[in-house]
Amino acid sequence: MNTKETIQIHATGEATGFIPAPDNKGKPIIVIGTNSIRAGFDATCLQQALNARGAPGVTDLVLNPDAHAGYGAPVGCVLTSPTHIYPGPVGVDIKCSMSFLQLDLPADQVADKTIRRNLINAILERTPTGPGRGQRSARKARKVGEALGVKVVTEGASDEVLHALGIPLEWAQRCEDAVHVGHDETRDALATRLEWLRANRFSNFVEKITQLGSYGGGNHFGECEVVRVENNDRARATAEVFGLRDGCVGFLSHCGSRGFGHALATGQFHDLQRKFAHWDIPLPGGDKELVYAPLGTPEAAAYLDDMALGANFATVNHLLINALVLEAFQEVIPGVKGSLVYYISHNITRRELLSDGNGGFNGDGWVHRKGATRAFPAGHPAVKNTPFAATGHPILLPGNPTAGSAIMVADPGAHVAAYSVNHGAGRAMGRKMADRTLDQKTVDDEFTASDILTNCRLYPKDEAPAAYKDFDTVLDSVKAAGLASEVARLKARFVIKDADMSLRGAA
Fold first, then answer.
1. Residue in 181, 232, 124, 233 with CA at minimum distance from that of residue 494
2. How far apart are the C-alpha atoms of 133 and 141, rounded to whole Å?
3. Please, are residues 417 and 481 in contact by the beta-carbon 8 Å criterion?
4. Beta pairing partners, 99
5. Helix, strand, coil proportions of the chain in percent (round to 5)?
6. CA pair distance 182, 328, nearest whole angstrom
7. Distance between CA 417 and CA 436 in Å, rounded?
8. Residue 37 phi, psi dihedral angles, 5° rounding
9. Measured distance CA(87)–CA(300) in Å, rounded
10. Are strands 484-497 and 453-454 parallel, antiparallel or unpaired?
11. CA distance 447 to 453
């Protein structure tokens, strides 16, 4: 096992560097981050990156400035391959994502603390928080039964599903991917796979489906924001295309595929680990979390089908949460209108054109993003025939409530990082360390001083702003590397978080 001292990052610019591939075979690992960011990567994170880069079929690996140790591969990494699928660089929360709802509500309308508290309560009546909690925990939630649940996971954000749940149909056009299909590009494959899963693994399918329209625990959240568009011509023009309203309220959400996606992902890990043991195949770096499957095999097909089922759940979950949040705002402040700006994921693999690192493409393959998000600039083939063809799509980057968050847009230089950027700030300390070292009063006083309300009697210390990297430093790395530019900053007015300390757990 290498140590941090033996894994050297070679700087190539203000915010770029590389780590040689194992045995110097193939492309090096690309590292995005200023010197202070690079110095903060721990040995486990760097070793996981080397292990993943050495896996069969891997052609590129990128470490983003928010990178930290994760399951099988660092959170905050991008891995590409034209030949293999790797569950580790996707993770256990399939299609964990961000979404942003823009309201036509001026910021001064939520200045009053009573109004904000009423909004928190109205949202919680519709969108519960906490592991395992779903529709039964929220009296004004949407009820999703078995038949509709099957449609959700096999069809994603289809017109029929959206209509049944009272979600505006046009919101599907503001999704990174509104619908996911099976390994053979059909819904039929998903229906067949779901039937097998329900017979062999998912006796509690109906229970899992009742978690639609909920946040879960860990680092998931809902956050009321005030939008501040950057004061430059490009930002203002881009904000207009995105549908952002300067000085108005919006709502930022972070959640994924809940218990349904977690069960699918962990089932895949266990299946592949048993296969590797039976085949007696060595694992990259000896890490059992770095299992993989060659494309075209039954194992790869099963993984892609399971991932698509989880991704469809996550998509509809986010859209439903936004519909419920809008409904809550309308209950407290009648007449408010809202529209979805964008929905973008950071735990998934998708077939895309593979960057050649020089602004061109080198065929297609599977781009795995774990705690990383797409960054397609204007002119990229993937944004052709979308509302964002001339600008690039919105990039939603959560910081923390007190530091704020950002909405960005990709620059042409994003090709050096496989057309990807970090998903957020990234953890500076583990959950146990944060619980052990941070002072509860200091954490809560920071929210009071910033006039940010929460639903928490005690804000979870493992999710405190101090548990994460400095957001401005992370953003500086993204901008200095030429990956993306800021369009707007978001200032939090209230936060909805898993408030039950007895139910705390990893995201």
1. 124
2. 12
3. yes
4. 253, 343
5. 40, 25, 35
6. 35
7. 35
8. -65, -45
9. 10
10. parallel
11. 7
User: What is the model's pLDDT at position 502?
Assistant: 39
Which H/E stretch holds residue 198? helix 187-200
| C-alpha closest to that of 253 among 227, 228, 220, 226 | 220
Q: Give the whole-angstrom CA distance, residue 473 versus residue 424.
A: 11
Residues 6+ apart with CB under 8 A from 50: 2, 7, 19, 22, 29, 285
Q: Looking up tokens 């690309």, which residue turns up?
A: 30
Task: Give the pairing type, strands 60-68 and 29-32.
Answer: parallel
Q: What residue ranges do the domains of the chain occupy?
A: 97-503
Cα–Cα dist 424/469, whole Å: 9
Model pLDDT for residues 227-276, shown as the tens digit of each residue: 999 999 999 999 999 999 999 999 999 999 999 999 999 999 999 999 99
Q: What percent of the chain has pLDDT over 90?
A: 91
Stretches in the chain below the pLDDT threshold 50: 501-507
Using an 8 Å Cβ cutoff, are 377 and 414 in contact?
A: yes
Cα(225)–Cα(103) distance, rounded to whole angstroms? 10
Q: Locate all alpha helices (DSSP H) within 364-454, ordered by sequence.
A: 431-437, 440-449
In CATH, the architecture of 97-503 is: Alpha-Beta Complex (3.90)
Answer for the pair 54, 22: CB distance below 8 angstroms, yes or no.
yes
Cα–Cα distance list, 169 to 143, 163, 176, 419 (Å): 19, 7, 15, 29
Q: How far apart are CA 140 and CA 488, in angstroms?
A: 33
**If phi over 0 gives left and psi between -120 and 50 gives alpha, with beta otherwise, what is residue 97?**
beta
**What confidence score (pLDDT) does residue 318 get?**
97
Instruction: Compute the distance between CA of residue 339 and CA of residue 100 in angstroms, rounded to an integer.
Output: 9
Tally Cβ neighbours within 10 Å of residue 357: 14
The SS3 call for residue 34 is: coil
Give the whole-angstrom CA distance, residue 10 versus residue 20.
9
Confirm if 242 and 227 have CB atoms less than 8 A apart: no
